[in-house]
Amino acid sequence: MTDKVITRFAPSPTGFLHIGNARTALFNWALAKSMGGDMLLRIEDTDHERSTDEAIAAIISGMDWLGLDYAGEPVYQSKNIDRHTEVAMQLLAEGKAYKCYATPEELTTMREKAKAEGRPMVYDRRWRDRPESDAPAGAPFVVRIKAPTTGEIVVHDKVQGDVTFKAENLDDFVILRSDGTPTYLLAVVVDDHDMGVTHIMRGDDHLVNSARQITIFNAMGWEIPVMAHTPLIHGPDGAKLSKRHGALGVEDYRRMGYLPETIRNYFARLGWAHGDDEIFSSEQFIEWFSFAGLNKGASRIDFAKLENMNAHYIKACDDSRLYELMLALAEELDDQTSLAGLKANKETVIAALPALKTRAKTIVELVKSAEFIYPSRPLQYEDKAKAAIEGESLDILRELQPALERINDWSHDGIDQALRAFAEQKELKFGKVAQPLRAAVTAKNASPGCFDVLLLLGKEESLSRLSETTAV
Ligand code: GLU
User: Cα(335)–Cα(182) distance, rounded to whole angstroms?
Assistant: First the structure.
């Protein structure tokens, strides 16, 4: 029997869930599910200053919003420090690691020399074979691993193929700091081993770390997990995604009104392909996921494409769920006017959604487009709406008012007949009547069509708004 596949997502809490990390989580999730395994969540919270409760909550709520489930409870790396230390001590006892007493001054000299010679700093292993008795009594030390000094370390990467590092370029790195705390490189290996991780998938900025971590796996005689390093996400200009590109955190996308299924689909597609498929469900993604589909190069985010995909998912979304998403967003953005309006007009909003959702690219736009249902009174006209009800159009609306009042059957047909009869009688084109009417009743530049609006609002509300307009 083969072992169950265990992947993990191991973010450091930095205050938000970076979209690039979220995509790493997405890939790990799909990989685990595609192989009948589990993804685990490990919060790498050993940096106490940054690892606040809010920062951790941002990761967990981001995962939750994206619908990326993990098995069991999150593992907190900070709780495993004793175990990390124990492994370091074991390596020390077995002669696979050693105490290094090099002083900060010595290290600075080494660094400066490397810099002058134009090469990266490599610790020169001066304590590797030196007896501890050489060290001044009570002097501080770090623990370094004995890395191979010759030959190559190969990362068998599922995305890039074999990536080879010369041993001479990877020094005896520190596994325990002078204050006795384990380093990140050690903690990750110990946790991955103890959590039974079979597959490590993370950003390709971790490739060198992988080469180093392989040394620890080997020193402990532990099996090296399957490794896959995914290229990073770049901004539209080809530079590594950063704040200046705008949205960086998953919550930014949520606040901009993206649906979680859009984010899953778009960002999966951004770094991975299944033929030419652009739109796919999470079930399909899981079914189709394989390392072979992962891109080898970085991909550029295209916000227009992302919006178009969101428009697609908004159209496909069930109206009552959309309504809930609108409420949640108004609440998150502290948009009290929309929140109150949405709550007080639930049925009308849901009834309006089939028309509204064909035009919206984001939930923010959708919330905005529903404003005509609960406008502030007196009506505040948007520019084009105002222009549409001035002059000759205002006269037309004034004359139209009684004709609309006479309608008994406030249905599509009933309204249609009355409007057509009125237009004919006044020898006007239908649009000359319908356009100002729509503008008058909604006060908006854009809204669903005239009939939709009049039917949604009902006779009483429509006429009350119209008389407010014509009373000027
Ligand atoms: N905590 C690391 C990060 O957020 C990831 C560590 C790993 O995946 O091994 O970049």
Answer: 46
Give the CA dihedral 133, 136, 138, 139, nearest 10 degrees.
Answer: -110
Q: Within a 10 A sphere around the Cβ of 450, how many other Cβ atoms?
A: 22
Q: List residues bridging with 161 in a β-sheet.
A: 157
What DSSP letter does each residue of 227-281 carry, written as one string?
A: EEEEPPEE-TTSSBP-GGGS--BHHHHHHTT--HHHHHHHHHHHHB-STT--S--
**Residue 16 Cα to ligand 1 middle (Å):** 14
What pairing do the DSSP bridges indicate for beta strands 6-9 and 38-43? parallel
Q: Coil, strand or helix: which one is 164?
A: strand
| pLDDT, mean over the chain | 96
Return phi, psi of residue 55, to 5°. -65, -40
Q: What is the pLDDT of residues 63-119, one digit of tens each?
A: 999 999 999 999 999 999 999 999 999 999 999 999 999 999 999 999 999 999 998
- Taking the CA atoms of residue 128, residue 130, residue 136 and residue 141 in that order, the dihedral angle to the nearest 10 degrees is 10
Q: Are 360 and 314 in contact (CB under 8 A)?
A: yes
Q: How far, in Å, are 11, 20, 289 from residue 430 at the CA level? A: 60, 52, 54
Confidence of residue 243 (pLDDT cuts 50, 70, 90): confident
Tell me the whole-structure pTM to 2 decimals.
Answer: 0.92
* Nearest Cα residue to atom 7 of ligand 1: 10
Whole-number Å distance between alpha carbons of 208 and 165? 8
Question: 43 C-alpha vs ligand 1 centroid, how far in Å?
Answer: 9
State how far the Cα of 48 lies from the Cα of 31, in Å rounded to an integer: 31
Q: Position 354: which residue type?
A: P
Q: Among 80, 184, 206, name the best residue to mutate to test ligand 1's pocket (greatest count of ligand atoms within 8 A of Cβ).
A: 206
H helix runs in 357-447, sequence order:
363-369, 383-388, 392-405, 412-425, 430-442
Task: Tell me the CA–centroid distance for residue 186 and ligand 1, in Å.
Answer: 12
Residues 6+ apart with CB under 8 A from 264: 26, 66, 67, 282, 285
